[in-house]
Amino acid sequence: MLKRCLTSSSRLWFLSSKNYCTSAGNAEEDRPQFPGSRSRWTQKLQFTASTDFEGIPVYRVMNRDGTITDDKQDPNLGQATITKIYKGMTLLNTMDRVLYESQRQGRISFYMTSFGEEGTHFGSAAALNDDDLVFGQYREGGVIMWRGFKLQQAMDQCYGNEDDNAKGRQMPVHYGDKNLHFATISSPLATQLPQAVGAAYHFKRQGKGKVVICYFGEGASSEGDTHAALNFAATLECPIIFFCRNNGYAISTPTSEQYRGDGIAGRGPGYGIASVRVDGNDVMAVYNATVAARNYCVEESKPVLIEAMTYRIGHHSTSDDSTAYRSVDEVRYWHQKDHPISRLRKYMELKGWWNDDMEKEWKEDSRKQVLQTFVTGEKKLKPPLIEMFKDVYDEMPENLVKQYNELMEHLKIYKEHYPVKKFQGLSEELS
Ligand SMILES: Cc1ncc(C[n+]2csc(CCOP(=O)(O)OP(=O)(O)O)c2C)c(N)n1
Ligand SMILES: [Mg+2]
Q1: What pLDDT, on a 0 to 100 scale, did the predictor assign at position 101?
Q2: Ligand nearest to the CA of 216
Q3: Ligand 1 center to 137 CA (angstroms)
Q4: Closest C-alpha to ligand 1, atom 21
Q5: How many Å lie between the centroid of ligand 1 and the Cα of residue 332?
Q6: Which pLDDT band holds residue 27 (cuts at 50, 70, 90)?
Q7: What is residue 133's predicted lDDT score, i.e. its pLDDT?
Q8: Where is the Dehydrogenase E1 component domain positioned along the sequence (predicted)?
Q9: In terms of CB atoms within 10 Å, which of 94, 282, 310, 376 comes out highest?
Q10: Collapsing DSSP states into helix, strand and coil, what is residue 379?
């Protein structure tokens, strides 16, 4: 079933639609000539069921105990890169804890954690070039962090303060940074996918060897936009990596209620897209898969689909309480038995690159960094109110000018009921 469809430099086996094709016993002229199909005649009346195929295997490099089972698959990232990845994963984890709690205290409006999915973020991000373009869904904070998004920028975005790139117009965790080639997150599911394919088509025409990576959840893959994106990417042969984080849930809907086929990777061959399934809790497997996918995109100018299997340990967001629909034991299993951070730590300890003292020191240091940037973000003023009305149009149209003027009139009368001092320049404007 599996066929090596990549070039010699790649290490991975991808499943392609060609694998389903057999030409045994059919002379070329006797083959069906229908446009849109490349198959053979059969005298056997048989429906093809997804259960006729064994599920696509899960590519793994590192065992749960942190050992590499096949040395040939070792990406040999070295101590410096592995330590950087580990520090990134744990820093994200610490930031998630602090910001989750801060929402509970009413200090920010909303938050989404990435607990348990850190391996998918850092393994894939480390495999990309800096000028590859990233489209995310919303749970990919580690990807933008790896590309250079500072803790302070993340805090400023979550507080929607005067230094927030989005000028306070987005919900928290909707990061974006043009300089880091990371398109701003937008909440409506799957909208990023057709946009990402359009960008990849542009890259193809440019011919500079750049690729797009587009992250999405397995839940988002049920949206119509995902179909449109996969089919456009396949037919236009765009250099894009579709990176699906299959974390088991779309809010409260488990995967068992989301689809009946072989996950998301299983759909790839139907679109004519080379596809692979990886252990998303194995940062090395994710890294290798993304490197191979990137090479394939550039060399073949075609899309690739990666399905990274993982588990959402946290609640969907601060608006969710997952104890209502899953057991504590289920969550505990992933937290204690199959966590990407502890697996990488075991690997580092076996190598002699990490120990308890280093862990303690890093924990203190990283927590301090998070808390310092958090406090700084909280103290900053909110952007000027006028920013709420700007930037959609080059010049503010009359109806928006009218709304803004009405808002200012209202605030002049009722200013004592509003946190006027928290907004840049507002007190002066109202006086
Ligand atoms: C078009 C649309 N429909 C519904 C929602 C509400 N919604 C937000 S996140 C989500 C679940 C998405 O699950 P998945 O894609 O698996 O990502 P995960 O949250 O698991 O990372 C839903 C239904 C939305 N944001 N947009
Ligand atoms: Mg999901």
Answers
A1: 97
A2: 1
A3: 9
A4: 217
A5: 23
A6: low
A7: 98
A8: 87-383
A9: 282
A10: helix
Whether residues 404 and 325 share a domain: the answer is no
Q: What is the pLDDT of residue 2?
A: 35
* 249: pLDDT strictly greater than 90: yes
Q: Sheet of 133-135: strands edge to edge?
A: 58-59, 274-279, 304-309, 240-246, 212-217, 133-135, 182-183
Q: How far is the CA of 322 from the centre of ligand 1 (A)?
A: 14
Task: Report the DSSP beta bridge partners of residue 210.
Answer: none
**Is residue 12 in some structural domain?**
no
| 11-29 average pLDDT score | 59
Q: What pLDDT, on the 0 to 100 scale, is given for residue 58?
A: 98
117 lines ligand 1 (CB under 6 A): no
Residue 29 has pLDDT above 90, yes or no: no
* pLDDT category of residue 88 using cuts at 50, 70 and 90: very high
pLDDT at residue 3, rounded to an integer: 39
Q: Tell me how many domains the chain contains.
A: 2
Task: Give the closest residue (by CA) to ligand 1 atom 4.
Answer: 189
Query: Which atom belonging to ligand 1 lies closest to the Cα atom of 139?
Result: 21
Cα distance between residue 58 and residue 285, in whole Å: 9
Same domain (yes/no): 326, 267: yes
Residue 25: per-residue pLDDT: 52
Claim to verify: residue 291 and residue 410 sit in the same structural domain: no
Specify the higher pLDDT residue, 15 or 388: 388
Q: Do 344 and 423 lie in a common domain?
A: no
- Would 397 be classed as within a structural domain? yes
Residues 359 and 394 in one domain: no
130-154 core/surface letters (b: 16 or more CB in 10 A; e: else): eebbbbbbbbbbbbbbbbebebbbb
Q: Which amino acid is at 230?
A: L
CA–CA dist 361, 356 (Å, integer): 9
Which numbered ligand comes closest to the C-alpha of 247?
A: 2
Using CA atoms, how far apart are residues 170 and 159, in angstroms rounded to an integer? 10
Mean pLDDT of the chain: 94
Q: Is the CB of 189 under 6 A from ligand 1?
A: yes
